[in-house]
Amino acid sequence: MAQNTVAPVDFSGGKYPVTAAQGWSAPLDSASQSHVNVSTSNDDKNLPNYSEGPPPSAPDISDFPPNYFDISIVPNNGVLHYNEVPAYTEPSKAEVERKSEGVLSFDPLIEKNPDQLWLYFMTYLNEKPALGIVIHGYHTEHYTTYETRRSADGHTHTHPVHHTRNVTDFNFTIDATQYISQQWWRVAVIPSKKAMKAGEFVSLRDAVEQYTRSEKNIKEITCQKQLVGWNYQELQDKIKALIYSTGYRSHINVTFSVNNNKIAARSSSKMSRFSSSLVVRILCVVSCLFLIFGPIYLCLRSAGSTRDRIVADYSMVAPVDTFLHFNSAVIANAAMGRSREFYPSYLA
């Protein structure tokens, strides 16, 4: 089915330097030699299997990050796929606030109207999340300082104090956003543990209507975007092995940052806007009023929020080994050059 989309916004941020990727060559066994550029089909309800290349790297729930929500526990009739959404003629006109984590709207247009709230979600689901791979290398440095103390008898004594500190050697980011499919794959409402025990499941439409029917002054509904198809532990291990193959012998941390991964709507009431203000939060912290109003606010928001979590899956368009094949030289050169920059990823 045809789907009208809104052009995605680039959340990768910043200008990237051109890297001389010829300074280092990956060992033959450090990455797959597949040059296949695999894309996903909008008509396929299954996770892309990269039929012309290696299989997906994360077939098991244990391979995903701790905050991953498994949509496979939702019955098939409760999962909405991209190709099942009827085309719409215009994107949502709701006013939004953009932050690094995504979009937030207080617009009354979507507070009571389920069709407008639905359109709001469909519009911003068409902006895929951004993925950054942060690679940090550091060594531990030992040093000694001396402290002078006066004893009870009035004499002074100097004592050595031994310290350790971590010193950064390189800290750079690879923007892997282009490895994320342009369209979302599927979206579903992950039921609470209580609902699962009772065998209760709701659709996205049910959650939307539940929110718009609520009369609470403070309420919130969110959709979390998540990435599927990569085994992140595997990628971490292979990046570390890649950098160690250059002769680096100190510590390496590989972490993943995901931006533009949340769509949220909150009630338009003055109380909702006031409580969500950054200035108000800072003043509460500084004045310690958060000890009084913080628990009250969180209880009100929790009571007004939808009971279940809405989650959207975005599949990766190529496996981990393909990413490493095209980007190993960039990663190795950045590490050897002690870089602290951002770099685009390459996908032939």
| Total helical segments | 8
The topology string of helices and strands comes to: EEEHEEEHHEHEEHHHEHE
User: What's the rounded overall pLDDT mean?
Assistant: 78
What is the gyration radius calculated from CA atoms?
A: 25 Å
Outline the low-pLDDT stretches.
1-22, 26-43, 50-62
Envelope shape: extended
Helix content: 25-40%
Structural class based on helices, strands and sheet pairing: alpha/beta
Tally of DSSP β-strands: 11
Distance between the termini: 29 Å
Strand neighbour order, sheet with most strands = 1-6-10-7-9-3-2
Strand residue content? 25-35%
| Main sheet summary | 7 strands, mixed
Number of domains: 1
Keywords: Membrane, Transmembrane, Transmembrane helix
Biased composition (Polar residues): 30-41
Transmembrane segments: 278-300
Region (Disordered): 27-62
Tell me about this structure:
Keywords: Membrane, Transmembrane, Transmembrane helix. The protein has one domain. The N terminus is likely disordered. It is 26% helix and 26% strand. A seven-stranded mixed sheet has the order 1-6-10-7-9-3-2, with helices on both faces. A four-stranded mixed sheet has the order 8-4-5-11. With 348 residues, the chain is of the alpha/beta class.
